[in-house]
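look at this record:
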Amino acid sequence: MHHRPTPSRPKRLNSLRHLLALSALGLASLAAQAEVTIGVSLSLTGPLSSLGLPQQATLALWPDRVAGEPIKLVILDDASDTSAAVKNARRFVSEQQVDLMLGSSGVPGVLGMAGVATEGRTLQLAFAPAPRQGGPEDWTFTLPQPVPLMSDALAARMVRDKVRRVAFLGWNEGYGEMWLNAFTASARQAGLEIVATERFSPVDTGITAQALKVLATKPDAVLVVGAGSAAAMPQIQLKERGWTGPIYQTHGAGSPDLLRVGGKAMEGTVLPAGPVLVAEQLDVGSPVRPVAMDYVTRFEKLKGANTRSQFGAHAFDALKVLERIVPVALKRARPGTPAFRQALRDALESEKDIAISHGVLNYSRSNHLGYDDCGVAMLRIHQGRFVVEGLPTKTR
């Protein structure tokens, strides 16, 4: 009778080790392919859609991978509504367990999402210039220039233009409130007098009462505070009621939609803006110029000539930030974990001189705004286009 030989114990152990090794390799391969999941809340409809739509279009320029890791974008519309932005953020954190969040397009939405970012200990890159206090409990970092930086530059320009008495005509929500507070301080420092303070809603289609009150004070100039195409309406109505003096706008108005909607009523308007709007005119030695030109070239190839906007560029700048911080975070943790989220934040607070299309960012634990004067260009609207009148005052 013949018996089948029984495998020796060493052979069985070798087979087991081989299977375990293959299993480990498989798990390592899966870990290496872990997606960096990003929740994006944008204002694709509603009064802020002229900000959100170019941001969505810019995301089409993103690569499939950053630092070798696959990127997964979960994009939701918040309809320019703060409560919807908060709902989106909660969905990102609780259901999607995202590694970071982008958005929203407007200040109120950013502020709403910021609370969720802190609760979920999830990094938020804001697309609107919401004020940030920094510190360990603040998980929100802004990509647009902070309002006080732009306000100081605009007040200095008014002094240069020999303006002394200014009427403020601005939105009655977060962005308008920030500008009112900042410009009050800038005006005081520059020796300007604010002779009228009138407010209107982003969804208003007329400002008859406010315009008449502004005109009654006989100011030297009017500062209009709004964003995107909605910033054109008050300027149009001021001119329809006889205003012929200078009008200044803010960086929130720096978009082709303002020119398209405002038409000839925008002629001569002065505003501070991000350098990306005048990328071709930046100094060849500027660290901002190659990034801004890269964005402008690629975006306008996609959407057509003269379609660039500051708002879309924020989505491109988010990519530039990730290209710096993701490789650093990957040295400490894998995507999809709390440790990776913390590592992303730590990297953002420690990396220096991150060149983006709007300037050069240097965040820290106590500074979540990141900008200096190299993020400001002073523009005038002339014959339907933005013309540079003052370039960034600092380069690195």
Notes: The CA atoms of residues 10 and 16 lie 10 Å apart. Residues 1-7, 19-32 have pLDDT under 50 and may be disordered. DSSP finds twelve helices and 15 strands in the chain.
